[in-house]
Amino acid sequence: MSEPIIKINDVNKWFGDFQVLKNINLDVNAKQKIVVCGPSGSGKSTLIRCINRLEEHQEGKIIVDGNELNENTKNIEEIRAEVGMVFQQFNLFPHLSILDNCTLAPIWVKKMPKKKAEELALKQLEQVQIVDQAYKFPGQLSGGQQQRSAIARALCMEPKIMLFDEPTSALDPEMIKEVLDAMVNLAKGGMTMIVVTHEMGFAKEVADEVIFMDEGMIVEKNTTKEFFANPKSDRTKLFLSQIL
Amino acid sequence: MKISLSKIKSNNYITNIYLGTFLFSLSIFDVFLYSFLNINITSFLPGNLSLFFPLIIGFIGLSFIRMEYSGIKIIDNLNKHINTSNFNALLTLIIIFALLKALPPALSWMILDANISGDTKQACTGTGACWTYIKVWFKRFMYGMYPNEMHWRINSAFILVIALGFVGYFFKDNLKKYLALYYVVIYPIIAFLIIYYLISGGSFGLVWVETGAWGGLSLTFIVSFFCLIFCFPLGMILALGRRSNLPAIRYTSICYIEFWRGVPLITVLFMSSVMFPMFLPEDFFMDKLVRVIIAITLFEAAYCAEVIRGGLQALPRGQYDAAKSLGMGYWKMHIFVILPQALKLVIPGIANTFLALVKDTPLIFVVGLAEIAGMLALAKTNPKWLGFAMEGYIFAAIIFWIICYAMSKYSYNLEQKYKTER
Lengths: 244, 422
Known about the structure:
Chain A is of the alpha/beta class. Helix content of chain A is 38%, strand content 25%. Chain A has a six-stranded mixed sheet with strand order 6-7-8-3-9-10, sandwiched between helices. Chain B contains 17 helices and one strand.
């Protein structure tokens, strides 16, 4: 067994007096797909935001691809460049076209020549099937198209890990499928993924492991099959009975 | 009278409209005759009634017009915009009458009874404005005390500076990324050199003209121009500084901004010319104009900073998150993602600050520099031309209005050009 690509050891985090993460322990291996679910306010978004240090943890260790994340981390930008992230609100840059959204970071962060960056961007946009929208602006696209563009933008950095923070929660029901399809394709391609979502169908289809969080703790961590077939804790059972 | 009006119900609404239009026109006609030709067609009515007669019949007329939906486009527009209720109808009438009343005296003073011929005070014989005064002093208002035969130097310097300002439009694609560098660093330096060598002179066979002789509208332009292009980048840095995570930078910015926002511009100008030289070594000389430009720049930068900070705060946190998650550092994130959006948002606010700056330039009079308003103040005390302050100030007001309106139009165009959907 090789070294896990993400190691989270006894992580605690507070927002003021409120403890959002309590003793989180989690190892993620390369190419593993993990779905994180749980009620709102349970700390799942905060957890994955800690993995690329958009949030800072106060206690414990987070090691991403051999680099420990703490206030002494000098190469945080390089680590972030290896960890792609997709947000609930898409967060595309509204003043740039879809293509420019995708090429901005490769050109300026990875110093890729413009031509090469554009080829790569078009290839990624083709993967998520919106290559025909490349020259439009984010405001001109539907929610589903925007979210797929955001996935393509993250992939253009050729990350080792992809984090998804409730990627379908802000979408109309009929647009959820197109985004999930893009994510399933990505999973089949062998990407390491951590997905915060309530889409249990997606979890059943692609996840290797499912994690259930409540009140800042990991209540249950199980293989996908076991998680849905015989959940261990009562809290998980209650949650599943309400969501399924 | 009013009470019975609201009860009128006619089946034939066209009658109402004819009647209403007639009464409304009659009221305007009455005021028009009285104000332009001094004929009072209602003099047969007793005192106050004669005065209020147009208001009353105009009001009745508008109520008739408003009574029904007519289907006639003009009347419907009228009803929709200026005749929606009794109160609005009254306001409309009062405004129309006030305009009609004010127009004839203004017209006769500015045009009909005004003089523009001749070149001495004696040419002004009419009761109206004396535009001769403006005509005679025009060169002074434009160029100050700058020697007459050298005005071409100012003109050509301005033409050069303006032409260089447009160079950015012709940049090829591969030069586009240097656009900001050009406008923030290179352009101001070139502009300074042009103005220094052409207007100041002293070399290339041009006679040295000291800045004390500069003045008029050209000085307004020079001061505004340099203050505008310097205060904007400085304000941007201060705005970023005030949001910095590093306490030293943050508190320095806060102190700077709060200091300059807390003192009146006029005291800053006084200090720049009276106190500032005291702190300088004796053999060090800095021109008065340069000191004034630095003072105004530092002052306005604080205002710019706060406007830009407003734009930075208006951006959703997700934009910062997205930029960071793509591996961008502080400067890349701000240059490519945050500032382009924030600056777009603050165009109206920045335009506001810049307009205020242009209109603050007359204050440099307190340190002895006479731009256009300052030249007026000098000219009106000239013994040969006493008593024409009014013409002068109206002239200056028109000039300032043209400059400011052009700026505000330009800012509005920019706003439209860079508008993006969110």
